[in-house]
Amino acid sequence: xxxxxxxxxxxxxxxxxxxxxxxxxxxxxxxxxxxxxxxxxxxxxxxxxxxxxxxxxxxxxxxxxxxxxxxxxxxxxxxxxxxxxxxxxxxxxxxxxxxxxxxxxxxxxxxxxxxxxxxxxxxxxxxxxxxxxxxxxxxxxxxxxxxxxxxxxxxxxxxxxxxxxxxxxxxxxxxxxxxxxxxxxxxxxxxxxxxxxxxxxxxxxxxxxxxxxxxxxxxxxxxxxxxxxxxxxxxxxxxxxxxxxxxxxxxxxxxxxxxxxxxxxxxxxxxxxxxxxxxxxxxxxxxxxxxxxxxxxxxxxxxxxxxxxxxxxxxxxxxxxxxxxxxxxxxxxxxxxxxxxxxxxxxxxxxxxxxxxxxxxx
Length: 362
Prior knowledge:
Strand order of the largest sheet: 2-1-3-4-5-13-14
Helix content: 25-40%
Low-confidence stretches: 351-362
Number of strands: 16
Distance between the termini: 32 Å
Structural class: alpha/beta
Oligomer: single chain
Radius of gyration: 22 Å
Order of helices and strands: EHEEHEHEHHEHEHEHEHEHEHEHEEEE
Strand content: 15-25%
């Protein structure tokens, strides 16, 4: 693209926070000058807000924006032709309809997997050692240790469900803790020998992982096969008192079943950075409102439950990478280059690698 010929393309960014503006503007100005002009909207993309994309060629959406068939049709009628997801997940996009309408759709498949893996360990140790409760107690002048007893991670069995980039990043970390490592993945990206030699772990089937693990961590994509992979049945297969951590996708866990397992003592603790009905609540301040989600509020009552607001990705490095990949995807489309992160291009759904070695057509 010539520096002397500014591109009139307009990009509408939805669910934009201050940090989205900062990093997208920075990358645009330093690496993609004249690519586009950006309009930021703080509210999510849905059927009501889609008209704000009028006169824009592209929209940029986040994890909880609505890109269902009605929204896609409305965007297309308004002249939008490209959809950029500044996230890895794309279950909120009707790819079949996007294909029919001829949209270009691209995502950011990986950004700082270490950031998510490190946050997973932070959640695990906060839950295990009751750091969140100790912080509040000490602030009140109470230095009593009663109720804070945890376990030493060294020698414990950690089970990782899903061995993509984040799962393997976590494997490297927990190996450093001296944990026994097992993993379950229907299409692992590396061989059993490589997993053993490089990570000190072993691949097992899901029932074996659940039965043997002291800690279970979820790192798989959300698909028809993984939705509610943690349910009453699989919770019943877990070692009694085991801890469960989910920094992947909310609907991997059937929350009401997890609550039942917490009440019975089958589940020893639960740490969530994602929640299956998070779309209405996460990323916004509801502190002055009544939160009308009884399941989420019930979770908050357990002393052995920790809930965060989908922040595992939230590092400077990750935000820089997200902004860079998002704008590079747009530039690929503008310049009619092959985009390796496209989900739909030239009216066709692309084969997308979502877990193991073999790509699958979504």
